[in-house]
Design goal:
By secondary structure, the protein is of the alpha+beta class. The chain has one domain: Alpha-Beta Complex (Ribosomal Protein L22, Chain A). It is 43% helix and 31% strand. It has 4 helices and 5 strands; from the N terminus they run αβαααββββ. A 3-stranded antiparallel sheet has the order 1-5-2, sandwiched between helices. It is elongated.
Length: 127
């Protein structure tokens, strides 16, 4: 386990130094906790494997994550990076703003409903 963590850290450092391709998707109508499970699947994998995993996932978070991955690959192509050698070096899922709505309840009361959002950031590097 420790060696895998070291590889991830090394890939992140290299991404910062090389200026890897990055894509963002902000204010997705999904909680960060649900998207975090899908993000764990694709960290450290090459782009083709990550795209295949996301294509066959049954969770709803896989759809926007796959779009962000495609955008990051397009950004890498614009930067003249070799697409066959790209690796998902970093996936960040952060909480976004919470929309507050109210629902009527008994005896004239109201209950707050919290509609959570999240931000996805995917960074790719060449290996």
């Amino acid at each position: 386990m420790a060696s895998r963590e070291k590889q991830k850290a090394q890939a992140r450092k290299q991404a910062r130094a090389d200026g890897g391709a990055v894509a963002h998707f902000r204010d997705i109508r999904m909680s960060a906790r649900k998207a975090q499970a899908i993000a764990k699947l694709i960290r450290g994998r090459n782009v083709e494997d990550a795209d295949t995993l996301l294509a066959f996932q049954r969770r709803a978070a896989a759809v926007p994550m796959r779009k962000v991955l495609a955008a990051a690959v397009a950004n890498a192509d614009q930067r003249n990076m070799d697409i066959d050698r790209l690796v998902v070096s970093d996936v960040q899922i952060n909480k976004g703003p919470i929309m507050r709505r109210y629902m009527a309840r008994a005896h004239g009361r109201a209950t707050r409903i919290r509609k959570q959002t999240s931000h996805i950031r995917i960074e790719l590097t060449e290996v």
